[in-house]
Amino acid sequence: MVAERLYGYIPVIFALTTLVTVYLFYKASGKSKFTLVVLLAWLLLQAGMGLSGFYKVTDTIPPRFLLAIGPPVLFVIALFLTRSGKTYMDGLNLRTLTILHTIRIPVELVLFWLFVHNAIPELMTFEGRNFDILSGITAPIIYYLGFTNNKPKAGILIFWNIVCLGLLVNIVVNAALSVPSPIQQFAFDQPNVGILFFPFNWLPSCVVPLVLLSHLAALRQLLLKKSVNNG
């Protein structure tokens, strides 16, 4: 297994990063017990699937890997299509949604270590096509600039969220098309196999969806507020 070939601290750091991500989103939700239960249940389910080797089978159509990313994507879409979902997103704490993105720093470090251990391709790291670490580095700066005087600076926050959302989409597309599967397009010499194993399968199944939702919910709040102010 991939995890057995890594230094012990690598999966530990990533598992802790995932739990911190979950905690920050739980905090953003106003410490909603429902949010915490759903997230922890999903983590446990994905842990079981990763440990069982379910995702190691890569020649199926559709790819089994879709069971990691499909449900969270459908859930995010449902939030935007339902009244209760929109209410939920509008109740998330904008400050916490912003600082949550600092977790992208340890995520990118873990991805680099996985590349060094031949578990993912170079294109998924900051030495390749992945510039997502900039989102994590700039998050504290934007948090400071965007919330000075306790008044959100909508322009700064909207611009930053859009740019960082673009960086996220870039790495997600490259990562998905590097996974060994019938739809693989990149990195045939060193495919993206690391995230088929626990705990790294938590990246596409939990961390990335929470980061995505944090951007989308923040943009929704900011654009709605800007629209009201302009109106």
Describe the structure.
By secondary structure, the protein is mainly alpha-helical. The chain has one domain (2-230). The protein has nine helices and no strands. The chain has helices spanning 9-28, 33-52, 66-81, 83-90, 94-99, 104-116, 133-146, 154-176, 202-230. α1 packs antiparallel against α2, α3 (66-81) runs parallel beside α9 (202-230) and α6 (104-116) packs antiparallel against α7. It is globular, with a radius of gyration of 18 Å.
Write the layout of secondary structure elements.
Elements: H1 9-28, H2 33-52, H3 66-81, H4 83-90, H5 94-99, H6 104-116, H7 133-146, H8 154-176, H9 202-230
Helix pairs in contact: 1-2, 1-6, 1-9, 3-4, 3-9, 6-7, 7-8, 8-9
**What is the share of helical residues?**
55-70%
Order of helices and strands: HHHHHHHHH
By helix and strand content, what is the structural category? Answer: mainly alpha
- Coarse shape: globular
Query: Count of DSSP E strands?
Result: 0
Task: Round the Cα radius of gyration to an integer and report it.
Answer: 18 Å
> What is the average of the pLDDT values?
93
Beta-sheet strand percentage?
Answer: under 5%
| Uncertain stretches of 5 or more adjacent residues | none
Number of domains: 1
The major pleated sheet works out as: none
Number of helices, where a helix is a run of at least 4 consecutive DSSP H or I residues: 9
Ends distance: 57 Å
